[in-house]
Structures are given as structure tokens and as C-alpha cells.
Design brief:
CATH class of the largest domain: Alpha Beta
Structural class: alpha+beta
Largest sheet: 8 strands, mixed
CATH superfamily of the largest domain: Bira Bifunctional Protein, Domain 2
Bound molecules: zinc ion
Radius of gyration: 28 Å
Number of domains: 2
Number of helices: 18
């Protein structure tokens, strides 16, 4: 019996890892242009952290977390709560009042696996903590947009405001009153949500719920003056940065901690419209977790979805993995000098491949093609006795003699120089 990976947990094979590395490189590069610093947290946290931050009545906490009940620990379902925990625990704000942090890594949620949604999934997560200005919201959103643009993805941006502890509770009460009037038309989930988490009803995808929600009161019309002004300024700041967006008054996020600005980067290239990334402001969260009264805003992007979109769109632009040189040692006496030569080349930063099986020249050239080698150095017994090898350019099959006299160090330096002058 073969053992297979767990349902919803997936290997990322070498051919695909190239794409993942490319996404990570782009993300680090762009995040660092915005002064973001990387932070790495453990994958497990005390369960209480997620219950207190994400919210008890959310889908994530109610049914999607991987929890070791007897140990009271949970595999993180998202990164923001862990970043806040680390921020508070290490008092990061003491050194620098505004912290710009990002992290890249796996998250875990027990959902029904589907295209672009796995139980172990990976996120790029960026947070700016300790700043309240609307321009910060715009800058963070613009950073996310810049990354998606640089990756060549076509996405649209939607924004909304969820208000604050002053204006949201009265709005919630109005929304509940409205939903109760037609509660028999809501789906089973929304009947329950009407009292536990009524905002979630606004983004239910079921047609019967959607029909009701169109007429529902809007949070945007219920914002307090401060929240209203914040939202106006975010919109103006986005326009000033030339970031196109649309307002979606039905957008809520699945996590309780969001306040004011929320946003989603959406694509319609994965079947139904799906979020590639999403985030928002969380002004009460840090205090709620026992930290100082600081505000924050952040987003997470799904790497599986980004990788899928790139697979569909831009595969040809990705550089293939390749070797600089393949050493074809023919005959047993050339194996030792060739393996030392490969080792010395690798020490000097050259990507060198070698085959120890003593196979025929034809078989070894085939292998050189498989590893995408730019050159092959052929060292036969006769050539070796004359201190010579043959350097073959694999792109045009042109061959030239290569001088193999001198010490192994001299040979490797000469070869390195030759490779560098020929490649450039
Ligand atoms: Zn408000
Ligand atoms: Zn519903």
C-alpha cells in the first residue's frame, strides 16, 4: 500500500516551486521598497489567541481550526493574530512606534478542499501597526496592487468601511431588525448568523440571501463622522496614488477584528469570482489582546491562487531551472579529476552537474539536456591523457578544445572565466 498525502495538503513539485520562488522574490522585493521587515512566527499558538482575535462566532473559529484540544493549542489559521501576539510579547512598538511587518508561510484551515483552496495553504501577509492616517491604508493597498501588477495578474480592487465600535453596534441592531422581518427567506447559516454575526449575511453567496441583502441598510450610510471622513480620505489617497478601485458596500470580512477600511483584490479568472488577497484595518485588536492601544492595518494574499493565475497567464516568462555546465566523464580514470573539478566550480558559484555512472557519451549528453545545462565539458580517456577536454555549447552544438593542463584549481578558474565570457 502506497502512502499518500492527506486530503487538502499538497506537495509543491520542483517545476512549480520555480513559480513560488518567483512570487516570493517579487513580494520581498516590493515589500522592502515600502520599508517592510520580515517576521517569522511559530505555526502553533494557544487556541485562545485565535478565539479572542478572530472571534468566537466566525466560521474559522467555529469549524475550521486544527486544534489539539487536550493541549489547548491550534495550528494558525491566519497570520495577523500571531504577528500581533509577537508584537505585544516583544514590545516592538517601544523601539519603533510604527512597525511595518510581513511574513510568508503556511496556514491551516479545515475547509472543503477545492481549486485554489487547500487545508494547508500559504499566505503573503503584510501589516502596518501603530499608524492611523488614511494615507497608510492607501499606501498598504497600493503596495498589494503593485505586487499583483508586477506579477502580471489582472485583478480588480474593491473597498468598503465597516465602521468602528461607535457606529457599528447601532448599525448591527438595525441590520438585525431588517433581517428578522424576512428571516424565513434566509439560508440556514444566515438564520443563525442573523443573531451571532449579522454582517456575514451581507456577503452570503446564496441567491435567496443576496436578493434580501440588496435592500438591507448600508454600513456606509451609518458611519459616524470620524469613520466617514476616514473613508473619504482613503478614497482620495488611493486616487492620488492612481490605484483604481470600486466600492462594495456588501463586503464584510470573515474575521471579527476588522474596523473601518476593508478591501479585496478579486479575479474572475479562477471560475467564480474569487479573492486573491484581502485585508483591512483592525483598530481595537492589539488592545483586545492585552497590548497598547495601537491601531493597525494589513492584508493577506493567497499564494495558491496567485500561482494558479500565473500558471494560466505568464508561464512562458518564468526562467527555467538550469545548470551552467555538465561534466561528462568518460572512462573510470577521468571520474576523480572531473568530480574534483565539479566541486571546485561549485565552490566558485558555478552550477555544475556531473554523472558518475560511466554511461556512454550519448547518454550523458541526453542527461545534460535534461538538467538544462548551458555547456557540457566532455573528458574522454584519450583527451585526458593529452590534458585536454572538449567544451560543447549545448544551444548551438559548437565544440571547442579546452586546455586541462595545470592544477585542478587552475583548470576550474580557466573554465569559470571561459563560461563567464561565453555566457555574457
Ligand atoms: Zn465609526
Ligand atoms: Zn445565506
Amino acid at each position: 500500500m502506497k502512502i499518500q498525502a492527506i486530503n487538502g495538503f499538497k506537495d509543491i513539485l520542483p517545476g512549480n516551486v520555480i513559480r513560488w520562488q518567483y512570487i516570493e522574490r517579487c513580494a520581498r522585493d516590493i515589500f522592502e521598497r515600502f520599508g517592510m521587515q520580515e517576521i517569522r512566527m511559530p505555526i502553533m499558538e494557544k487556541t485562545e489567541l485565535f478565539v479572542r482575535s478572530i472571534g468566537e462566532a466566525t466560521d474559522v473559529v467555529e469549524k475550521e481550526m486544527y486544534t489539539f484540544i487536550d493541549k489547548g493549542i491550534t495550528m494558525r489559521p491566519e497570520a495577523t493574530a500571531s504577528i500581533m501576539r509577537a508584537f505585544i510579547e516583544h514590545g516592538l512598538h517601544v523601539q519603533q512606534p510604527v512597525q511595518r511587518l510581513y511574513t510568508i508561510g503556511p496556514m491551516f484551515r479545515h475547509e472543503r478542499p477545492q481549486k485554489g483552496r487547500l487545508r494547508q495553504f500559504h499566505q503573503l501577509d503584510a501589516e502596518i501597526i501603530g499608524a492611523v492616517e488614511p494615507r497608510i491604508d492607501a499606501e498598504l493597498i497600493a503596495m498589494g496592487q503593485m505586487l499583483l501588477d508586477e506579477l502580471g495578474l489582472k485583478t480588480s480592487l474593491e473597498i468598503n468601511s465597516l465602521g468602528c465600535p461607535v457606529c457599528r453596534p447601532p448599525f448591527k441592531a438595525r441590520l438585525i431588525t431588517y433581517l428578522e422581518q424576512s428571516i424565513e427567506h434566509l439560508c440556514e447559516d444566515c438564520k443563525r448568523r442573523t443573531h451571532t454575526n449579522p454582517l456575514r449575511v451581507l456577503d452570503c453567496k446564496k441567491p435567496s440571501c443576496r436578493a434580501l441583502v440588496v435592500e438591507a441598510p448600508s454600513m456606509l450610510e451609518a458611519l459616524c463622522p470620524e469613520c466617514d471622513q476616514h473613508f473619504q480620505e482613503v478614497k482620495e489617497a488611493l486616487q492620488a496614488l492612481r490605484v483604481p478601485f470600486q466600492i462594495n458596500r456588501f463586503m464584510v470580512r470573515g474575521l471579527d477584528y476588522y474596523t473601518r477600511t476593508t478591501f479585496e483584490f478579486l479575479t474572475s479568472d479562477l471560475g467564480a469570482q474569487a479573492a486573491v488577497g484581502a485585508g483591512g484595518r483592525y483598530d481595537g485588536l492589539i488592545e483586545q489582546l492585552g497590548g497598547p492601544p495601537l491601531s493597525g492595518i494589513g492584508f493577506a494574499m493567497g499564494m495558491e491562487r496567485i500561482a494558479l493565475l500565473m500558471e494560466q497567464d505568464t508561464e512562458s516568462h518564468l526562467p527555467a531551472a538550469s545548470m551552467d555546465i555538465f561534466l561528462a566523464a568518460l572512462g573510470s580514470e577521468t571520474l576523480a579529476p572531473c568530480s574534483l573539478l565539479a566541486h571546485l566550480l561549485r565552490q566558485q558559484g558555478i552550477r555544475a552537474a556531473i554523472d558518475y555512472s560511466g554511461r556512454s557519451l550519448k547518454a550523458q549528453l541526453k542527461q545534460a539536456g535534461r538538467v538544462n545545462a548551458r555547456f557540457t565539458l566532455i573528458v574522454g580517456v584519450d583527451e585526458w591523457s593529452r590534458q585536454e577536454g572538449i567544451l560543447r555549447d549545448m544551444t548551438n552544438q559548437v565544440q571547442q578544445p579546452f586546455d586541462m593542463s595545470g592544477t585542478p584549481e587552475e583548470q576550474s578558474l580557466r573554465l569559470k572565466q571561459l563560461l563567464q565570457t561565453t555566457i555574457h
